[in-house]
């Protein structure tokens, strides 16, 4: 009797490799408070980003086709909050300065005076020549526009003709605003604001500047039809 032959068949079953372990989810840490504030540098960056929407020459928009110009106008409306942000930031700074100025005499000292002067300088957004830093002055001397509010007007009115009454009105309100900031700065630097009556005069001038700022904002809104 022939012995049975047992053949050994190697197993083809393989153990699947373990899936790679999923790396732990790393949540981004919250941004520091400083990066959330709308600084002057942020304002200039936003305005420079909006600028490409405003660089089409008038001749390119005068072929009788309203499409491109209407599209640009619509884009300006959509970015209105960024265009108006420097104005709102300046108004909030002025309100902070007003609260300091209207403190009681015993609560107002050298520290508060320095803070008020710093706030007024910041609120002017480099539009008052005597308040510009040396670096900003260098930019001005080289032909770089450093007045944030002037950049706002330029962007907002870029689709309007040079003689358009809405554009001219916005430019007039800008002149009034810069003049008001300059006057306010002079008062804060020249008056002895340690005296309560002088502080009240500066506070009143500050509120006049807020009014000019509100009028300027309205002029910008009219330029972009917001």
Automatic annotation (TrEMBL):
GO terms for cellular component: chloroplast. PANTHER family: PLASMA MEMBRANE FUSION PROTEIN. This is Uncharacterized protein. It comes from Anisodus acutangulus. The lineage of its organism: Eukaryota, Viridiplantae, Streptophyta, Embryophyta, Tracheophyta.
């Amino acid at each position: 009797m022939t012995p049975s032959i047992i053949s050994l068949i190697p197993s083809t079953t393989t153990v699947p490799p373990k899936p790679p372990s999923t790396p732990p989810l790393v949540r981004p840490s919250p941004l520091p408070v400083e990066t959330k504030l709308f600084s002057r540098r942020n304002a200039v960056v936003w305005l420079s980003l909006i600028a490409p929407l405003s660089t089409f020459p008038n001749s390119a928009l005068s072929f009788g086709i309203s499409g491109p110009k209407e599209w640009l106008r619509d884009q300006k409306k959509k970015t209105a909050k960024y265009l108006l942000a420097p104005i709102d930031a300046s108004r909030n700074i002025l309100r902070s300065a007003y609260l300091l100025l209207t403190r009681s005499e015993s609560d107002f000292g050298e520290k508060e005076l320095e803070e008020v002067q710093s706030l007024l300088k910041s609120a002017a957004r480099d539009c008052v020549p005597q308040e510009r830093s040396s670096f900003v002055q260098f930019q001005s001397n080289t032909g770089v526009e450093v007045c944030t509010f002037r950049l706002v007007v330029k962007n907002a009115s870029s689709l309007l003709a040079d003689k358009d009454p809405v554009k001219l009105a916005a430019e007039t309100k800008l002149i009034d605003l810069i003049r008001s900031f300059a006057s306010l700065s002079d008062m804060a630097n020249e008056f002895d604001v340690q005296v309560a009556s002088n502080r009240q005069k500066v506070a009143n001038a500050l509120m006049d500047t807020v009014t000019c700022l509100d009028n300027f904002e309205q002029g910008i809104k009219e330029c972009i039809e917001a």
